């Protein structure tokens, strides 16, 4: 390609980058989007989508054992990991090709390769096919390069025996025993998925509870389910290192009961993610990161260099795909001169553990710490007819409201399809709804959504299907 000039250069085609490129193109800006290897980014290729595909497979495999209660007998169940991986790959390929098609269809120009700033208005693009690098000039740029798993010095990833959250999604067979270092949401999603598929699982967590930072009342349900399924959890424990033992590993752990060694086939390290800005040439563009590696942005996603913007994981927590997408859409409009900014009140969070967890707005402890006088309404799934038919009665819906006027401050859901139900809660928080708005809205029966209505009425003291 010869040297070219663009209105907008977008670096990275993940859930933040490709919406930015699409929106900018829709608004008439000549846009180039450069992606190193994975159209759709981590989320579509090696994160959200493939992990949820495997999690759903694990749930389905486990459900077969529950069918007997319904009078359904299955003589023998088996798992073909090759076919499972093929199915997962088909979903990923469909979505990533869709991203390319959407970008191209909306008028953006696509480039496979890497981009490195050479100034605040120029960048060198190196094609992935090995052809000659070329220079592009741009009026504005968007950095959307995402994040990568944090690697611990004592556990260097080889993606064969020591796995990152990427490698654990590509296992050719179910391991005999897996040790998971890190009891956060990624570690527990992976650990529970592997357990449902048949692996023995041990989770090592440095804190005094799994899912550090989450409502302890919710954590108890997940902990209980893990214990019931046979997952061993070591809290206040530190993994110190690993040594080869045949085809597997011996992991040394220092826990509450002293040091021990755990033999395993695979070690999965999920201790968080860090922003990825390697090779971007930030200094040449006049940019620098903070002490954690993030790029600081204002409410229009503008960095310290006025014509360069950043979205997604490189801008800090929460590192969530839906936050990145919203930022991408907003920045696309800012690039076109529209007077818009990030002013969302909540970024809902979802954890695909068993039971699922979803939150929006302030949690109970956060509302108290913020100085609110609160009222709480909680409705258990055991009192919901639809949950009973699904054989999923662990957990509850909890609504946190301002005691002075009943405004909804936050919602926490632990239980079946929490990930689907949280959107109603996020809308309630975003629009400054009151508990009455939820309680007086007729929810169809029999559905899981009724639990949100019931929890709202519990706040008001007149719930029907649970004692007030």
SSE layout:
Elements: E1 4-11, H1 17-26, E2 31-35, H2 41-46, H3 48-66, H4 81-105, E3 109-117, E4 122-127, E5 134-143, E6 147-149, E7 162-163, E8 177-181, H5 185-196, E9 200-204, H6 216-229, E10 232-234, E11 238-245, E12 248-255, E13 258-264, E14 266-269, E15 273-275, H7 282-285, E16 308-310, H8 321-335, E17 349-351, E18 357-361, H9 364-369, E19 374-380, H10 385-389, E20 396-402, E21 408-414, H11 418-430, H12 435-439, H13 450-460
Parallel strand pairs: 1-2, 1-5, 2-3, 5-16, 7-14, 8-9, 8-14, 9-10
Antiparallel strand pairs: 3-4, 4-5, 6-15, 11-12, 12-13, 17-18, 18-21, 19-20, 20-21
Helix pairs in contact: 1-4, 1-8, 3-4, 3-5
**Helical coverage, percent range:** 25-40%
Summarize the main sheet.
Answer: 5 strands, mixed, barrel
CATH superfamily of the largest domain: FAD/NAD(P)-binding domain
CATH uppermost class of the largest domain: Alpha Beta
Silhouette? globular
Figure out the total of helices: 13
- Count up the domains: 3
User: End-to-end span in angstroms?
Assistant: 70 Å
Q: Ranges with pLDDT <50 over ≥5 residues?
A: none
The total strand number stands at: 21
User: Which strands sit side by side, in order, in the main sheet?
Assistant: 1-2-3-4-5
Strand content of the residues, in percent?
25-35%
CATH fold descriptor of the largest domain: FAD/NAD(P)-binding domain
* Mean of residue pLDDT values: 96
Radius of gyration: 24 Å
Q: Can you name the CATH architecture of the largest domain?
A: 3-Layer(bba) Sandwich
Structural class designation: alpha/beta
């Amino acid at each position: 390609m010869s040297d070219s000039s663009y209105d907008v250069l977008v670096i990275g085609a993940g859930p933040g980058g490709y919406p930015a490129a699409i929106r900018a193109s829709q608004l008439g800006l000549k846009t180039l989007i450069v992606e190193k290897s994975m159209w759709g980014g981590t989320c579509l290729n090696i994160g959200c989508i493939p992990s949820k595909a495997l999690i759903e497979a694990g749930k389905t495999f486990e459900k077969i054992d529950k069918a007997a209660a319904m009078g359904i007998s299955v003589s023998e169940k088996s798992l073909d990991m090759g076919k499972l991986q093929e199915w997962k790959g088909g979903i990923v390929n469909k979505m990533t090709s869709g991203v390319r098609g959407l970008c191209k269809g909306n008028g953006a120009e696509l480039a496979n390769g890497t981009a490195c700033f050479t100034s605040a208005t120029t960048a060198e693009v190196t094609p992935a096919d090995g052809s000659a690098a070329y220079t592009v000039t741009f009026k504005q740029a968007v950095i959307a390069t995402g994040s990568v798993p944090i690697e611990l010095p004592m556990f260097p990833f080889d993606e064969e025996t020591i796995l990152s959250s990427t490698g654990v999604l590509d296992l050719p067979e179910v391991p005999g025993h897996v040790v998971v270092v890190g009891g956060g949401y990624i570690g527990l999603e992976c650990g529970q998925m592997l357990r449902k598929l048949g692996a023995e699982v041990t989770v090592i967590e440095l804190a005094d509870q799994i899912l550090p930072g989450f409502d302890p009342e919710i954590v108890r349900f997940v902990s209980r389910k893990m214990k019931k399924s046979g997952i061993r959890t070591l809290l206040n424990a530190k993994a110190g290192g690993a040594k080869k033992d045949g085809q597997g590993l011996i992991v040394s752990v220092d826990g509450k009961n002293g040091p021990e060694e755990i033999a395993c086939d695979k070690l999965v390290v999920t201790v968080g993610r860090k922003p990825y800005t390697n090779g971007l040439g930030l200094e040449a563009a006049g940019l620098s990161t903070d002490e954690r590696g993030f790029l600081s942005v204002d409410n229009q996603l503008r960095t310290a260099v006025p014509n360069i913007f950043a979205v997604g994981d490189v801008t800090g927590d929460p590192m969530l795909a839906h936050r990145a997408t919203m930022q991408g859409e907003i920045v696309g409009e800012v690039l076109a001169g529209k007077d818009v900014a990030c002013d969302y009140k909540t970024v809902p969070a979802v954890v695909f553990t068993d039971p699922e967890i979803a939150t929006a707005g302030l949690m109970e402890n956060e509302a108290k710490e913020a100085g609110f006088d609160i009222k709480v309404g909680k409705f258990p799934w055991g009192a919901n007819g639809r949950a009973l038919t699904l054989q999923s009665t662990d957990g509850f819906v909890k609504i946190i409201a301002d005691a002075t006027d009943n405004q909804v401050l936050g919602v926490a859901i632990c239980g079946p399809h929490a990930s689907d139900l949280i959107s109603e809660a996020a809308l309630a928080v975003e629009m400054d709804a009151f508990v009455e708005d939820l309680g007086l809205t007729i929810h169809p029966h029999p559905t899981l959504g009724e639990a949100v209505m019931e929890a709202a009425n519990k706040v008001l003291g007149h719930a029907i299907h649970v004692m007030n």
